[in-house]
Write a structure and sequence with these properties.
The chain is built from 20 helices and four strands. With 514 residues, it is mostly helical. The strands form two sheets. The protein has a two-stranded antiparallel sheet with strand order 1-2. A two-stranded antiparallel sheet has the order 3-4. It is globular, with a radius of gyration of 22 Å. 57% of the residues are buried.
Length: 514
């Protein structure tokens, strides 16, 4: 790109970033209580809830990790997208409404750990503490993946040092999350979700025309050196020169299991103002995720045909960035439009990082500081602790993301498995099996999280981890172990009290619209 192109893209980026910070400043004036900061007073509209939930869900993984995986390895990587789509549908159809009702009924729970505490009448606050620790540990890794994506974006576009780029992205995200809390995060996510969708749909359509349609794309994919040519690259059942195994496809589909355990998504369900808006959100969110996942997969395919020379494996996660900069480089106006589309990638990154920062802050301030350590702390102190926690987590995530060679896909995979295994099973069982008790819940969270750590990080088989040796995604194993222990431990220990059973039935039979 020439100097004029870079200037146009820089102006687009600067305008976008300033706009995000202004939103944070505006909502800072409206944030007066901890409930405002953490859950926005349960006042989200259907559109904002849907776009915010999905934008905070997908992150830079959607626009960098997924297209990059398909670009490098072929359409066999689409099974992750398929699994995530069905996971999204299940989450919105089966989990969202009942979770919202139950958190209201269970003493107006503002966070997922608080819901567990109230659901199981945990007077010793064991669930509160364990859940909060799990959130902090795995969200540090998750937030680091978003910051790493931001660093790679700025480096790829402007050629600046990765570490400087990392700092720029972290400071902006930190600024508006620190100031405005939940509503600032959700409103910025609404803008970012729209921007992501526009970029995802527009760029592959343009690239499709430029490569000469389907026939031209197939020819160019073969010429790009894809193993097995276009036929193997475009066959979702073939991995280069061999068929995909059942374990490989099953592991990719299993990503969908993680949705039930993602606190930054579940809090959106809790914050919607009423059941009518929630039903609206459900439809919008499912359409959004179908379009965005499909478009991200197409970007990976067309990028292989459109980009010459071929990107190395290390650069593959930049495929969408490279496509945008190649399409929009003819004059200043086109470059500015390209800058707006690049902001869509930045939007994906920021919309996830801000949500993760906020959920972690709420766990530390409300669940640990207020409910465990200092029950008599006033609202102002808890609000201050929330904001200080946002700063601390951002700094730690910044340090984890310091390595420029860190894989966005790898970081997201580990964090997704950890959160999905620890929280997914107990969320489902808490909502749908009334025999679940406190002991079973504790066993489920601990076993799920610990299983993922053992599976992914401890070399037990000839110097390899179990994940590497078997090829089986740790989320599958962690989820199964957690469900099993929840059932066995709950049945082996005392049944829940009549008060808990009555509350469960009241939520199940709730027909109210509040």
């Amino acid at each position: 790109m020439n100097g004029g192109d870079l200037t146009a893209i820089f102006i687009a980026f600067a305008a976008y970033l300033i706009f995000m910070v202004v939103i944070g400043a505006l909502y800072m004036k409206k944030t007066e209580s901890v409930e405002d900061y953490i859950l926005g007073g349960r006042g989200l509209s259907g559109w904002v809830a849907a776009f915010s939930a999905q934008a905070s869900d997908m992150s830079g993984w959607l626009l960098m990790g997924l297209p990059g995986a398909i670009y490098a390895a072929g359409t066999g990587q689409i099974w992750i997208a398929v699994g995530l789509f069905f996971g999204t549908v299940f989450n919105w159809v089966c989990i969202s409404s009942r979770l919202r009702r139950y958190t209201i009924k269970a003493n107006n729970s503002l966070t997922l750990p608080a819901f567990f505490e109230n659901r199981y009448r945990d007077k010793k606050k064991i669930m509160l503490l364990i859940s909060s620790i799990v959130i902090v540990v795995f969200f540090l890794v998750y937030t680091a993946s978003a910051l790493a994506a931001g660093g790679k974006l700025f480096t790829s576009v402007f050629g600046i040092d990765y570490h400087i780029a990392l700092a720029i992205g972290a400071v902006v995200i930190l600024a508006y999350t620190f100031m405005g809390g939940f509503m600032a995060v959700c409103v910025t996510d609404f803008v970012q979700g729209g921007l992501m969708l526009i970029g995802l749909l527009a760029v592959p359509i343009i690239a499709y025309v430029l490569v000469g349609g389907a026939d031209g794309a197939k020819e160019l994919i073969t010429e790009s050196g894809a193993t097995g040519g276009a036929e193997a690259f475009l066959n979702p059942l073939i991995n280069g020169d061999r068929p995909y195994t059942f374990v490989e496809i099953f592991s990719q589909l299993a990503w969908g299991l993680g949705y039930c355990g993602m606190p930054h998504i579940l809090t959106r369900f809790m914050a919607v103002k009423n059941q009518k808006e929630l039903r609206k959100s459900r439809v919008i969110a499912i359409i959004w995720v179908a379009l965005s996942l499909g478009a991200a997969c197409v970007i990976g395919v067309l990028g292989r045909a459109y980009l010459v020379p071929v990107l190395s494996d290390a650069e593959s996660e930049n495929v969408f960035i490279k496509m945008i900069t190649k399409v929009f480089t003819e004059d200043f106006n086109l470059a500015f439009i390209g800058g707006i589309f690049l902001c869509g990638i930045l939007a994906a990154i920021m919309s996830t990082a801000d949500s993760q920062l906020l959920v972690t802050a709420s766990s530390v301030s409300k669940d640990i500081y207020k409910d465990v350590l200092f029950p008599k702390a006033d609202e102002k102190k808890v609000l201050a602790v929330s904001r200080y926690t946002v700063v601390a987590v951002a700094v730690l995530a910044f340090l984890i993301a310091w390595n420029p060679n860190s894989s966005i896909m790898g970081l997201v995979s580990n964090a997704w498995a950890g959160l999905g295994s620890a929280f997914g099973p107990i969320v489902v069982m808490s909502l749908f099996w009334k025999r679940t008790n406190l002991q079973g819940a504790v066993a489920g969270i601990l076993s799920g999280g610990i299983t993922v750590i053992i599976w992914d990080y401890i070399p037990l088989v000839n110097g390899q981890t179990l994940g590497t040796a078997t090829g089986l995604y740790s989320l599958v194993v962690g989820f199964a172990v957690s469900i099993l222990l929840i059932v066995l431990v709950s049945l082996a220990t005392k049944a829940p009290s009549q008060e808990i059973l009555d509350e469960f039935e009241a939520v199940r039979n709730w027909n109210g619209e509040e």
